[in-house]
Predict the 3D structure of the following.
Amino acid sequence: MTILAVAGCGHGGAAVAGTRDVAFANGALQLKGTLQVPEHAPGRRPAVVLLHGSGPQSRSCELSGQIAMGFGCSVELFEELADGLEAAGFVVLRYDKRTCGPFNDCADNGYPWPSVTHGIGDLVSDAAAAVRWLSKQREVDASRIYVVGHSEGGQLVPRLLTDVKELRGGVMLAAPHSPVDAVFMGQVAFLDGRVLAKGKPDKATEKTLKELHQQVAGLAALRAGTYEGVRIGKAPTVFWKSWLKIGYEAPALAAATPKPILVLSGSYDWNVPPNETEDWATTFATQPSAPHKTLVVPCVTHAMNCVREPNPSLVNVYDIDCSVDPRVIANVVQFLKAH
């Protein structure tokens, strides 16, 4: 792949194929990312913006495991997905999340500390700014821009499709149907079961489980309107409130939009289990004329790689692929090209 160290560009001049570092503004924040342009696709191309899951995430979106399972390697989800989309003729923009910067050794991008009032709305606003910036690039067909979100980022897709007119459709990878408090409660219960199955936990594990149960209790109190603290875990309550709100809204927004949505997850996902995708299918069934689709890919985890051993108690590192499963990329490409 050609590497070009070039800043972002506007409408004028000839299209430039290859990969380059770019920056785009959302208010006072300059978001840093990577733009990939196909070398053998003439004219203006369809384009995709990639949206991160929860926590600090760089533009590569490196994932080294899922709940109760380490991979022994890192899956560079966004880098591999972007390469696959670029090979299929799409321009791809991926960027460092605003919570990933020098302040937490996540990326050397010059980002400032996130505001204490940081919420999910900031991430939606960042994604909208990315789409608007991408629509003005000379390589891009502004009528064919899509968004692909993973996990938390997937749950933002219905709001973006509703609010951002430039978007043509979207893909939700391992995206929760339930609000974040319900998903988090399920994750902690699953982790409890995995730990208990291995016998009495050590003191460090007991401490971690206690902290997680405190967060579950905090989220329950927040939902009930009785929580009086300023943080739950490491995140401010304003962030959790905004995430709860967007989770409540997402199913109705997704069902109502005429823009096509693909919800894709894996059968081996322990963070957002397959029943969440089944719930998306039920929601979409209320609008049978909508061009939406759901798919659960066998053996695929939350990081979109494959674990080939079906019995979790028998898994070793040799059963775990360290790359995005080709079926994931193929289905995303096929869906976007079909629309």
In short: The two ends are 27 Å apart (CA to CA). The helical segments are 77-87, 120-135, 152-163, 180-197, 203-224, 237-256, 274-284, 326-338.
